[in-house]
Amino acid sequence: MYSEPEFLLRTELRQPNTYFSILRALAHGRRTPNEIAGMAGVESASLSTYLQKLRRLRLIERHIPVTESPTSSKRGRYRIAAPLFRFWFRFVYGNQDQLRMLGENAYEELVAPELADYVNPLFERLCQRVLPTLVDRQFRDIGQWWFKEHELDVLGLTEDGLVAGECKFTSNPVSEGILSDLERTADEVRWSKRPTGGEPLYVLFSRSGYTDDLEHATETRDDVRLFDLSDLVTTEYNQS
């Protein structure tokens, strides 16, 4: 685990240290070219060359808002494709000496404090993957959506309208405020093929459940669905 990703990359890449800095930035949640260049210390003008090489090697992926065209969108974001490399550049790269010193305490000291932040993007993708099974609609596409300061973890495009979702892999139950934020953000979505009169469906996914106030407030609402970790695990298991 300490050296396998490094060995594989050094056999494929010239200037491996520059690529390592870029991958480390991605592993720490930098997604846009400006964010990546800033953390990696790479000139913005030359960054695209490195990103293209990493994409050709299938080490990273470019994704866009689900409402936009892959060929014309200018709002692409990047992420590491392989979980092994994402974990290695988040927790191992640059920390090898510290990991050896900590020994069996390495998880508690280095991994546990950042685990929720590390897992949340994976949790979001799991929620996207199981959405068609949990919600009985015909989906044209499912992904993320963002525009300026607005962002949706999950957005499903259907013949009946939008399915907008928020994913929380935290130790606290989700409250009414999260639902209110989701409703406001969904109002900002612009989709040229959005059906006239289609009402959004709001879905929440939570690792730690929901507050009593939120559950009570949504009991009589047909446009809100609440899912917990057991719903996701059961659905994913049944699909495998």
Automatic annotation (TrEMBL):
- The answer on whether this UniProt entry bears the keyword Electron transport reads no
Q: Does the keyword Thylakoid apply?
A: no
Q: Which Gene3D superfamilies match?
A: Winged helix-like DNA-binding domain superfamily/Winged helix DNA-binding domain (1.10.10.10)
Q: InterPro entries under this entry?
A: ArsR-like_HTH, DUF234, Restrct_endonuc-II-like, WH-like_DNA-bd_sf, WH_DNA-bd_sf
Which of UniProt's keywords are assigned here? ATP-binding, Nucleotide-binding
> Which part of the chain is the DUF234 domain?
88-171
Under the heading Pfam families, the entry gives: DUF234 (PF03008)
One GO molecular-function entry: ATP binding
This protein's source sits in the domain of life called Archaea
Q: Which PANTHER family match?
A: ATPASE (PTHR34704)
> Under what name is this protein listed?
ATP-binding protein
| Lineage of the species this protein comes from | Archaea, Methanobacteriati, Methanobacteriota, Stenosarchaea group, Halobacteria
